Amino acid sequence: MHVSASILNCNFLKLEEEIKKVEAAGIDSFHLDVMDGHFVPNLSFGTPIFNALKKIATKPIITHLMVFSPIKMVDWFRDGSQGIIFHYEAIENQEEFKETIKKIKEKNLECGIALNPPTPIEKLFPYLSEIDEILIMSVFPGFGGQKFMPEVIKKIEDLKNLITKENLKITISVDGGVGPENSQLLITAGADKLIVGSAIFKEKDYSAVIKKIKNV
């Protein structure tokens, strides 16, 4: 099981120490939430934190754009990201949606689409051949530390069945309220990657938490 550390809840006064500690504890990648204060009601990281992270991290970085008009930010985060995820709900114009996917792929980056809890997976059916990852939000985006919404389990199961049936190579990720108490449920439902933030960074022993999440 791939565990990606969301740094939204880490101690930014000790960023380098936190990054090295969580890497040593066994995470597989970093998840960077970029929020614009408009698409979601919070502000988070810009390029200064991203540039600092990519200098320290040895694990891959996935940039999650929780912003309107994500196409404008692809160039800001392309160098140093393994992939870029943007929200289905952030773009109303279908042509702009397609152009955003195209731009990410042209930069030789993995392209992911995030779905908010109410958005059905059927919305992504026209794009399944073009994307590498689908991120199922199990909370409403914008703030770390929220409680997991169990109703997304059915959504994950349905998506996994579809991907298997169509023989697609798409990673299913889950973000929001993920921790040891629900990780096995998510893995059983079909998740390939779990994005974990506060469940790791609120504990002293990062390694113990990650082992519980991975069930090893």
UniProtKB/TrEMBL annotation:
Domain of life from the UniProt record: Bacteria
Active site feature: 33, 175
UniProt remark on cofactor binding: Binds 1 divalent metal cation per subunit.
Cellular compartments per GO CC: cytoplasm
Binding site for a divalent metal cation: 31, 33, 64, 175
Known EC number: 5.1.3.1
MF annotations from Gene Ontology: D-ribulose-phosphate 3-epimerase activity; metal ion binding
Cofactor: Co(2+); a divalent metal cation; Fe(2+); Zn(2+)
Keywords from the UniProt entry: Carbohydrate metabolism, Cobalt, Isomerase, Manganese, Metal-binding, Zinc
Family: Belongs to the ribulose-phosphate 3-epimerase family.
Name this protein carries in UniProt: Ribulose-phosphate 3-epimerase
Species the sequence originates in: candidate division WOR-3 bacterium
